[in-house]
Amino acid sequence: MSVQAILLPLFVEVVLTFVLLFVMAPMRTRDFATGAVRPEDVALREPKWPKRTTQVANAFSNQFELPVLFYALTVLEYVTHLAGVVFVVLAWIFVLFRIAHAYVHVTSNIVRLRGALFAVSAVVLAVMWAIYIVEVLTLP
To answer: Which of 29, 35, 9 shows the shortest CA–CA distance to 121?
Structure first.
Protein backbone atom coordinates (compact mmCIF):
# COMPACT_ATOMS: atom_id res chain seq x y z
CA MET A 1 0.00 0.00 0.00
CA SER A 2 1.15 3.51 -0.72
CA VAL A 3 1.84 5.96 2.06
CA GLN A 4 -1.00 8.11 0.73
CA ALA A 5 -3.51 5.25 0.88
CA ILE A 6 -2.47 4.38 4.42
CA LEU A 7 -2.41 7.92 5.79
CA LEU A 8 -5.35 9.53 3.95
CA PRO A 9 -8.00 8.18 6.38
CA LEU A 10 -5.90 9.53 9.27
CA PHE A 11 -5.67 12.92 7.54
CA VAL A 12 -9.46 13.00 7.10
CA GLU A 13 -9.92 12.23 10.81
CA VAL A 14 -7.53 15.07 11.68
CA VAL A 15 -9.45 17.44 9.40
CA LEU A 16 -12.70 16.43 11.12
CA THR A 17 -11.15 17.33 14.47
CA PHE A 18 -10.07 20.75 13.22
CA VAL A 19 -13.45 21.43 11.60
CA LEU A 20 -15.17 20.79 14.92
CA LEU A 21 -12.64 23.03 16.68
CA PHE A 22 -13.18 25.83 14.17
CA VAL A 23 -16.96 25.52 14.56
CA MET A 24 -16.75 25.47 18.36
CA ALA A 25 -14.31 28.38 18.83
CA PRO A 26 -16.55 31.13 17.39
CA MET A 27 -19.51 29.71 19.29
CA ARG A 28 -17.63 30.04 22.56
CA THR A 29 -16.42 33.51 21.60
CA ARG A 30 -20.01 34.52 20.86
CA ASP A 31 -21.19 33.04 24.17
CA PHE A 32 -18.70 35.25 26.02
CA ALA A 33 -19.51 38.33 23.93
CA THR A 34 -23.27 38.00 24.46
CA GLY A 35 -22.94 37.27 28.16
CA ALA A 36 -24.44 33.79 27.78
CA VAL A 37 -21.51 32.56 29.85
CA ARG A 38 -18.88 34.26 31.99
CA PRO A 39 -15.26 33.09 32.10
CA GLU A 40 -15.44 32.39 35.83
CA ASP A 41 -18.46 30.13 35.21
CA VAL A 42 -16.45 27.77 33.03
CA ALA A 43 -12.89 28.26 34.26
CA LEU A 44 -12.74 24.77 35.78
CA ARG A 45 -14.70 23.05 33.00
CA GLU A 46 -18.02 23.49 34.72
CA PRO A 47 -20.91 22.54 32.44
CA LYS A 48 -22.36 26.04 32.13
CA TRP A 49 -21.98 26.55 28.38
CA PRO A 50 -25.20 26.91 26.40
CA LYS A 51 -26.64 23.63 25.13
CA ARG A 52 -25.67 24.10 21.46
CA THR A 53 -22.08 25.06 22.32
CA THR A 54 -21.83 22.07 24.66
CA GLN A 55 -23.10 19.81 21.88
CA VAL A 56 -20.33 20.89 19.50
CA ALA A 57 -17.71 20.89 22.27
CA ASN A 58 -18.63 17.31 23.17
CA ALA A 59 -18.31 16.26 19.52
CA PHE A 60 -14.87 17.88 19.48
CA SER A 61 -13.85 16.16 22.73
CA ASN A 62 -14.93 12.81 21.31
CA GLN A 63 -12.19 13.16 18.70
CA PHE A 64 -9.65 12.56 21.47
CA GLU A 65 -11.13 9.25 22.57
CA LEU A 66 -11.36 6.38 20.06
CA PRO A 67 -9.49 8.26 17.32
CA VAL A 68 -6.36 8.30 19.48
CA LEU A 69 -6.23 4.51 19.21
CA PHE A 70 -6.82 4.85 15.46
CA TYR A 71 -3.91 7.28 15.12
CA ALA A 72 -1.59 4.98 17.06
CA LEU A 73 -2.61 1.95 15.02
CA THR A 74 -2.18 3.76 11.72
CA VAL A 75 1.34 4.82 12.63
CA LEU A 76 2.18 1.30 13.81
CA GLU A 77 0.76 -0.25 10.64
CA TYR A 78 2.82 2.13 8.53
CA VAL A 79 6.07 1.76 10.48
CA THR A 80 5.88 -2.05 10.55
CA HIS A 81 4.86 -2.23 6.87
CA LEU A 82 1.84 -4.38 7.73
CA ALA A 83 -0.84 -2.04 6.36
CA GLY A 84 -2.63 -3.69 3.48
CA VAL A 85 -5.93 -3.42 1.67
CA VAL A 86 -7.90 -4.76 4.64
CA PHE A 87 -6.41 -2.13 6.94
CA VAL A 88 -7.15 0.70 4.51
CA VAL A 89 -10.74 -0.43 3.91
CA LEU A 90 -11.39 -0.77 7.64
CA ALA A 91 -9.71 2.59 8.27
CA TRP A 92 -12.11 4.26 5.83
CA ILE A 93 -15.08 2.53 7.45
CA PHE A 94 -13.90 3.75 10.85
CA VAL A 95 -13.44 7.33 9.62
CA LEU A 96 -16.78 7.43 7.78
CA PHE A 97 -18.59 6.28 10.90
CA ARG A 98 -16.70 8.89 12.95
CA ILE A 99 -17.81 11.58 10.50
CA ALA A 100 -21.40 10.34 10.70
CA HIS A 101 -21.16 10.24 14.51
CA ALA A 102 -19.87 13.83 14.63
CA TYR A 103 -22.56 14.98 12.18
CA VAL A 104 -25.35 13.49 14.29
CA HIS A 105 -23.70 14.89 17.42
CA VAL A 106 -23.72 18.48 16.13
CA THR A 107 -27.11 18.32 14.38
CA SER A 108 -30.02 16.21 15.60
CA ASN A 109 -28.04 14.68 18.48
CA ILE A 110 -30.27 11.60 18.45
CA VAL A 111 -28.57 9.62 21.20
CA ARG A 112 -29.55 6.14 19.99
CA LEU A 113 -28.32 6.87 16.46
CA ARG A 114 -25.18 8.53 17.75
CA GLY A 115 -24.56 5.55 20.02
CA ALA A 116 -25.04 3.08 17.17
CA LEU A 117 -22.60 4.98 14.97
CA PHE A 118 -20.09 5.09 17.84
CA ALA A 119 -20.54 1.35 18.44
CA VAL A 120 -19.87 0.47 14.81
CA SER A 121 -16.71 2.59 14.75
CA ALA A 122 -15.57 1.02 18.04
CA VAL A 123 -16.11 -2.51 16.75
CA VAL A 124 -14.32 -1.73 13.48
CA LEU A 125 -11.37 -0.30 15.41
CA ALA A 126 -11.28 -3.30 17.75
CA VAL A 127 -11.22 -5.62 14.73
CA MET A 128 -8.40 -3.55 13.21
CA TRP A 129 -6.39 -3.86 16.42
CA ALA A 130 -7.10 -7.60 16.69
CA ILE A 131 -5.89 -8.17 13.14
CA TYR A 132 -2.75 -6.13 13.77
CA ILE A 133 -1.96 -7.92 17.03
CA VAL A 134 -2.31 -11.31 15.34
CA GLU A 135 -0.14 -10.14 12.43
CA VAL A 136 2.60 -8.94 14.76
CA LEU A 137 2.49 -12.00 17.01
CA THR A 138 2.68 -14.38 14.07
CA LEU A 139 5.59 -12.67 12.33
CA PRO A 140 8.41 -15.07 11.56
So the answer is: 9
